[in-house]
Specification:
Helix 1 runs antiparallel to helix 2, helix 3 packs across helix 6 and helix 7 packs antiparallel against helix 9. This protein has two domains: 174 residues, no CATH class; 62 residues. It is built from twelve helices and no strands. By secondary structure, it is mainly alpha-helical.
């Protein structure tokens, strides 16, 4: 049994035995069921943060509570709560699903959708800071507005079709994160060069290979890397220029004289 799981089970048993705080016990129980129903845990975490229940239990802040008591990493907590609030905003009907008659999308898939359309405003408020101005987390920042048709297509893929995040990436990454012409070829050349370098480094450590053959292979691999670099260099410049053009904001039309 994993250490985190064992700790949670022991804590649940202790709170039940000693009559611990009801809300605290409920969150621990939902953490136990995390693998089966992430929405229940995400809902509970959202309520704990809103009520500041962690302060009653002696924790410094929300993330301190999640880390020390629930053994949840900050990145996981943010992904869960942002995904939950994304469902509340974009597909509240999902909260009524039982997970049997209709499968609940994974929080990774909902997180992918959230990153594409931007986290809900209430989640950004929570991450930006509390009443004393202390930062609670690092907002991921909303992306540029998306084509409404693309958003509808993504929403259907996540909530209606229940596609896993791997399929979502295959389907939408090229649209959400377009790559300049030549970028894929440059990546292939870079990987090939790295493989050639790694092989050249490993050859001297392989017992049984004749020294003469090792030297010859090292020379050939060195020549191959030079050839690959000669192909990659112009592409590297081409891709860099294209990336700058893609990042440059569009020019506003000049004001017409009146």
């Amino acid at each position: 049994m994993a250490t985190g799981t064992k700790k949670i089970d022991e804590l649940a048993a202790l709170l039940e035995k000693t009559g611990g705080d009801a809300q605290r016990l409920e969150v621990v129980r939902r953490t136990q069921k995390f693998k089966r129903s992430w929405i229940e845990l995400a809902e509970a975490l959202t309520k704990v943060r809103a009520s500041k229940g962690y302060a009653r239990w002696g924790f410094e802040d929300f993330y301190d509570y999640c880390s020390r008591e629930l053994t949840l990493k900050r990145a996981t907590v943010d992904k869960l709560t942002i995904s939950y609030n994304t469902i509340q905003t974009h597909a509240p009907e999902v909260l009524e699903w039982d997970g049997v008659a209709k499968a609940i999308p994974s929080y990774d898939a909902v997180d992918y959708f959230s990153r594409a359309v931007g986290p809900p405003a209430n989640e950004l408020d929570e991450l930006d800071g509390d009443a004393d101005g202390k930062p609670k987390g690092k907002p991921r920042g909303a992306p540029a507005p998306r084509d409404p048709e693309l958003v509808r297509e993504m929403k259907a893929a996540v909530f209606d079709e229940g596609q896993p995040v791997a399929e979502l990436r295959k389907r939408f990454d090229s649209v959400l994160h377009p790559r300049p012409k030549g970028a894929e070829h440059l990546e292939l050349l870079t990987k090939a060069s790295a493989c050639a370098r790694k092989l050249a480094e490993l050859l001297p450590d392989i017992d049984g290979l004749p020294e003469k053959r090792v030297r010859k292979l090292e020379e050939e691999l060195g020549a191959l890397r030079e050839n690959l670099e000669s192909l990659a260099e112009p592409l590297r410049e081409q891709v860099a220029r294209a990336q700058k053009r893609m990042q440059k904001p569009p020019k506003m039309p000049a004001a017409q004289a009146v």
